[in-house]
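Translate sequence into structure tokens.
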Amino acid sequence: MIQRFADWLVYDTLGIDAGTRFGSALNFFVYDSLKIFILLFAISAVMGVINAYFPVERLRQWLTSHRFFGLQYLLASVFGAVTPFCSCSSIPLFIGFVKGGIPLGVTFAFLITSPLVNEVAVAMFLGTFGVRATAVYVVSGILLGTIGGAVLGQFRLERYLSPWVRELQASSEMQSERWNSGGMTFAERLPSILRDAAGIVRGVAIYVLIGIGVGAAMHGFVPEGFFEKYMSKENPLAVPMAVVCAVPMYANAAGIVPVVQVFVAKGIPLGTAIAFMMGVVGLSLPEATMLKKVMTWRLIGIFFGTVTLFIIFSGYLFNLIL
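Result follows.
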């Protein structure tokens, strides 16, 4: 429905040719903006309902006081793998997790894996590269989120969350305590929940629009010839160069699989191509722009740097085993 509306607005109402780069970029901008705003409002409302009936402090204490031996990171990573979100679409749920008091390392495990692995990309990977490569891709994506979340969780990075998020957490706790002591009905709580959800959307709207605008400008532009020159198997630095070059891009996993297929067909090692794909879908400038409302630049740098190193290591490992 959202895609049909974007097509109607851009191609039919505005009369822009669908075959032009500008038309494709504008259509992408309209579609992704509406999709993410709807997701953000819906997820914020759902997290508000959860907060109304399940005290945030109790959930936080339960997650931090029990020893799960890393299972919490694995579960968050698996949940990220089964959610069909790109890097920018994952952020609304990430905000909901942080607002709800979920430990930051656990939320990072979700944020890392969610854009890397989804069912459409798995199906395309299976048909293009076979069972072995697909299994390596899926398992590595989940492990990347699990290990990355666990490592980042040890750094106690909550102090680098933005003041806006900390205010959300504080208001969420106070609201939960008030509701649980006041015996309010769901109908009485709902208007406040929806107002809070709308407030979150307003708070991040400019960052969402800027981020998607950057992604739209890059949408559909993959200079294959440039990458092929530097990603050949003869270049020992091909994997880190592939990941660094991938970060400015923006696409979901399903959209980049055909590009990976072209790279492999032209002689680029599969591991290097997968590392490039992970860099495109897991790390992007639009994602960084949207995360700025949630994190300080220092935390964004730590997150991007850690995930980049893990992807580079994975790329070299893929080239050894594939």
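Note: The chain is about 80% helix and 0% strand.
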